[in-house]
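dumping this here so i dont lose it
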């Protein structure tokens, strides 16, 4: 199960922010259902009218702020929670998430920069959720998937693909097998950029 929080920039830029979230998550659910037999159930959408403590434009700092936000006793963390933001994050970064963190109430979070319409935003969410599920970057030095061609969803550069590589699938499957919060149908960080750089460790 997944919750999505929208910051005030996303909330105010959409007439119906809940529907905007649902449209993108339908795409994400299709990717995960088809390729991983995991249903991404959107159980809560929380549109913020004020950002409160979610002030940073540095992606890593904002991720930490969001982790604090979702760790509050008043927040019902369903297994993974993402912040949809329409602020411009610093540099070329468009997303960041903790790696192998699904079902963890503190670390099962991600931040996705979503500006405008189209499928790009959904692919950013799918990429970051892939990190939560244990997929490192493809075709990146030092990654377990370093030898994978850069034509898949987890490539460090945005390329329009919605397909997980065989290596990504092999990294994700053990995480799914050990996860307690997933609906199966049958602490590192990794950040997403138009150029996705090395993940901080």
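and the seq i came up w/
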């Amino acid at each position: 199960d997944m919750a999505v929080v929208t910051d005030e920039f996303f909330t105010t830029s959409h007439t119906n922010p809940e529907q905007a979230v649902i449209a993108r998550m339908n795409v994400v659910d299709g990717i995960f259902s088809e390729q991983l037999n995991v249903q991404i159930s959107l159980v809560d959408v929380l549109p913020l009218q004020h950002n409160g403590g979610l002030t940073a434009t540095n992606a890593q700092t904002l991720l930490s702020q969001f982790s604090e936000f979702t760790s509050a006793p008043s927040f019902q963390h369903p297994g993974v929670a993402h912040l949809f933001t329409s602020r411009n994050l610093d540099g070329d970064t468009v997303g960041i998430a903790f790696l192998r963190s699904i079902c963890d109430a503190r670390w099962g979070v991600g931040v996705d920069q979503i500006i405008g319409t189209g499928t790009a935003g959904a692919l950013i969410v799918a990429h970051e959720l892939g990190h939560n599920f244990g997929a490192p970057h493809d075709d990146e030095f030092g990654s377990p998937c370093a030898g994978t061609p850069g034509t898949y969803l987890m490539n460090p550069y945005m390329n329009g693909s919605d397909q997980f590589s065989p290596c990504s699938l092999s990294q994700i499957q053990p995480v799914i097998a050990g996860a307690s919060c997933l609906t199966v149908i049958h602490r590192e960080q990794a950040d997403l950029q138009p150029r996705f750089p090395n993940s901080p460790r």
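Residues 195-201 have pLDDT under 50 and may be disordered.
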